[in-house]
């Protein structure tokens, strides 16, 4: 392990503890840009997809695929993971996540998934859809040398297309003009042009949630994270300084 993101993890854990009261009392924790009912609708859909596509049992949870790509998820997946940690994990486990697991960076600059432990994924039941390599019947495992992002490498692309289509039902919605819009988190941070994030590492979502704007701006600028952030902004897909 090469290092960690420059964050005060004890302070973040303190902030997190304050925040979990809101989760416990069922307060609205979603970004204000979209209605709470839209977030809830997408969370229900995500939950239904997960419960209707139980794990195949073919995944041994070895964690090999977790090391193959940088961890990032959609905001709706972040909100699905969040109550699982806040309400189901004991406090000492939450503390270990913050103080030891979060923000780790490898020698090659790629981020580690904070949920990858020796025994495998610590959020297995609520892990993001991209981590689920078998939601449409066929087990997609990196041990079989299949590149999830490269459809051309597949002898049968149908399960992948079905999986991507299913995922997009969660990630996109239709507005009143029947335009397909990707659910995103609008971001306004000191020193950066405003933009909307659609895909980001867990740590970024957490900093936005805890309203740690300056810390978030600093981390967003790190070259470690820039390649895996996906932003919605008219005319550009890249971040730029204001
Ligand atoms: S999908 Fe395959 S590589 Fe990934 S954790 Fe499961 S068994 Fe390991
Ligand atoms: S969330 Fe779980 S399955 Fe996904 S990359 Fe992390 S450890 Fe692996």
Class from helix and strand fractions: alpha+beta
Can you give the mean pLDDT? 82
Helical proportion, percent range: 25-40%
**Count of β-strands:** 9
How are the strands of the largest sheet arranged?
A: 7-8-9
Shape: globular
**Total of domains:** 1
Distance between the termini: 33 Å
Q: What is the CA-atom radius of gyration, in angstroms?
A: 18 Å
How large a portion of the residues is in β-strands, by DSSP E? 5-15%
User: Order of helices and strands, N to C?
Assistant: EHHHHEEEHEEEEHHE
As residue ranges, the low-confidence spans are 234-242
Sheet with most strands: 3 strands, antiparallel
Count the DSSP helices.
Answer: 7
Which ions and ligands are bound to the chains? iron/sulfur cluster
Describe the protein's architecture and organization.
It contains seven helices and nine strands, in the order E-H-H-H-H-E-E-E-H-E-E-E-E-H-H-E. With 242 residues, it is α+β, with helices and mostly antiparallel strands. The protein has one domain (3-232). The strands form four sheets. It has a three-stranded antiparallel beta sheet with strand order 7-8-9, with no helix packed on it. Strands 1-2 form a two-stranded antiparallel ribbon. Strand 7 (185-187) and strand 8 form a beta hairpin. Helix 1 packs antiparallel against helix 4. It is globular and about 45 Å long. The structure holds iron/sulfur cluster (2 copies). One iron/sulfur cluster is lined by residues 59-65, 133, 141-143. This is Zinc-or iron-chelating domain-containing protein. Pfam families: CxxCxxCC. InterPro entries: Puta_zinc/iron-chelating_dom.
């Amino acid at each position: 392990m090469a290092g960690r993101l420059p964050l005060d993890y004890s302070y973040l854990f303190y902030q997190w503890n304050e925040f979990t009261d809101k989760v416990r009392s069922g307060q609205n924790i979603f970004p204000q840009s979209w209605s709470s009912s839209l977030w809830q609708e997408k969370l229900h859909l995500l939950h239904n997809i997960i419960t209707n596509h139980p794990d195949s049992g073919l995944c041994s949870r070895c964690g090999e695929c977790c090391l193959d790509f940088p961890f990032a998820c959609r905001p709706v997946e972040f909100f699905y993971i969040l109550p699982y940690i806040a309400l189901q994990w004991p406090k000492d486990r939450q503390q270990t996540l913050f103080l030891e697991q979060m923000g780790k960076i490898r020698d090659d600059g790629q981020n580690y998934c904070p949920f990858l432990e020796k025994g495998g994924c610590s959020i297995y039941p609520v892990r993001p859809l991209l981590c689920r390599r078998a939601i449409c019947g066929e087990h997609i495992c990196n041990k079989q040398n299949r590149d999830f992002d490269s459809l051309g490498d597949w002898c049968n692309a149908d399960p992948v297309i079905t999986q991507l289509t299913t995922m997009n039902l969660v990630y996109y919605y239709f507005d009143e003009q029947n335009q397909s819009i990707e659910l995103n988190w609008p971001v306004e941070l000191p020193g950066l042009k405003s933009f909307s994030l659609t895909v980001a590492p867990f740590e970024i979502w957490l900093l936005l949630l805890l309203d740690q704007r300056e810390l978030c701006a600093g981390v967003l600028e790190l070259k470690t994270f820039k390649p895996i952030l996906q932003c919605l902004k008219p005319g550009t897909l890249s971040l730029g300084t204001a």
